[in-house]
Amino acid sequence: MSRPEPILAVDGLAVGYGVVPIVRDVALAVGRGEAVALLGANGAGKSTLLKAISGLLKPSAGRIRLAGKDIQGLAAETLVGRGLSHVAEGRRIFRKESVADNIQLGMYRLGLGRAEMARRRDEAFTLFPALREKAPAAAGTLSGGQQQMLAIAQALVRRPSVLMLDEPSLGLAPILVDEVFRVLGDIRAQGVSVLLVEQVVEQTLGFVDFAYVLANGRIAAAGTPAELGRTDVVRQAYLGRAPADLEGAA
Ligand SMILES: Nc1ncnc2c1ncn2[C@@H]1O[C@H](COP(=O)(O)OP(=O)(O)OP(=O)(O)O)[C@@H](O)[C@H]1O
């Protein structure tokens, strides 16, 4: 199957904490308009890899290109301006601030005028009607699912061309996981390219166009969901985990 031209391309990437590399020799690509998954067991290095791409960690080797331009080593803030948004694990919202202010903070330092910020906030509320209802409430009073939606909304108002999400379904009830995937479908339909780290494997493979499996910091397999489904490689990457985790919410 031919894939679209890459909007994000990673090559020979190594990154770690201090001297110990956690992720080694990783190559991956996200095509324009594609939804791509990064799967792998706990500790495989998925979050570390996303942080290196979004400029939160400095790679010790390798190349990262966004829309054809080298971005390795650039600061996270610079990359946001270039169209790369990262929804980190654990719903990093400002709990004491209102829902509306949280969305506003997502646009901080983008240099947008008031009218444009209001327009983008309204778009976010259209995608997440529950957030509109709770606009004046403190973000900390939202349910877990709503907090996750708020974290995604904060990233979306920056109008990213590539949206990276680290386990958006973490800790959510199955019905809310479905809601996360519905929203991701809407986001993809708007032409945003998506790189998704997830543990709900079945549902993720049902959503993405292409997937990479990370094991011990290296890419162990890559393919379309159909190609990966013909092998045992995904299951093997999760060996040692409870079968229930593999079944996800499907
Ligand atoms: N700040 C840190 N300092 C040192 N080691 C770290 C740090 N953060 C993560 N690690 C180590 O890096 C390895 C990869 O962690 P990472 O969080 O990238 O994995 P993951 O695949 O995202 O797993 P999970 O699904 O648990 O989030 C683990 O061995 C972890 O202990």
UniProtKB/TrEMBL annotation:
InterPro entries: AAA+_ATPase, ABC_transporter-like_ATP-bd, ABC_transporter-like_CS, BCAA_Transport_ATP-bd_LivF, P-loop_NTPase. One of its GO terms (molecular function) is branched-chain amino acid transmembrane transporter activity. SMART domains: AAA. PROSITE patterns: ABC_TRANSPORTER_1 (PS00211), ABC_TRANSPORTER_2 (PS50893). The keyword Nucleotide-binding applies. Keywords: Amino-acid transport, ATP-binding, Nucleotide-binding, Transport. Belongs to the ABC transporter superfamily. This is ABC transporter ATP-binding protein. It comes from Chelatococcus reniformis.
